[in-house]
Amino acid sequence: MRQEEIWDADAAESYDTPGTGMFAPDVLGPTVATLAELAGNGKALEFAIGTGRVAIPLVAKGVAVTGIELSRPMVEQLRTKADEEAIPVVLGDMATTTAPGAGSFQLVYLVFNAISVLQTQPEQVECFRNAARHLAPGGRFVIELWVPDVHKLPPDKKAVVCQSEPGHISLDTYDVLTQHVVSHHFDFEEGKRTARLFQSPHRYIWPSELDLMAQLAGFELESRHADWQGSPFTADSESHVSVYRLPGGEAASGATS
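Given the sequence above, the corresponding structure tokens read:
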């Protein structure tokens, strides 16, 4: 299934969960604070801007944000909260689409595992190269990504339960040969025999592979932490926030190590 078909009007209308999940203050607050610090006085570009979960509070902190987004319904949902003047958005693929001002951004960011929706390694490499094209010398590309948990796969099985709570169960099914995973999200009501299913395919990336993609695009790894709070990244970390920097320019305030 194509990404445009997955992120349709129904998905866009149900995407926002104000105050909970990835919209919870303890999730969103550190994300926005870190990105604002890295942007400094420069402009930011968000790949896969979606409904503006991160962009809107980042603009409220005084950062000028432009977006690239493949899904028109997601942009239409964003437009109910911020107009084109406040947050310009270009419709297109984040691996190939060019936004106005390319070459002048201080920060490009890609959060909540979004790079993994690109289904092939070449597309993911092109995403890095597209980020590099948009950045000024010394600019940074920030990626938030989960660490593949294939070690949890039972012998001869292909599925892992990744979330189980009242009214919701999520399963990930893996193809370890192609590094493809499909997330299956089941939402149901107590006493009902049917559930609503949302599926999204991904190509997972190991941190070392991500670093090589960055090198191919001319980036250097500046820092890697387990989360937006700056926790150390270890062998047990389930996710990471990686900051890549282009050579040249002066390190902006907010440099991390």
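DSSP finds seven helices and eleven strands in the chain. Try to locate this feature in the token string yourself.
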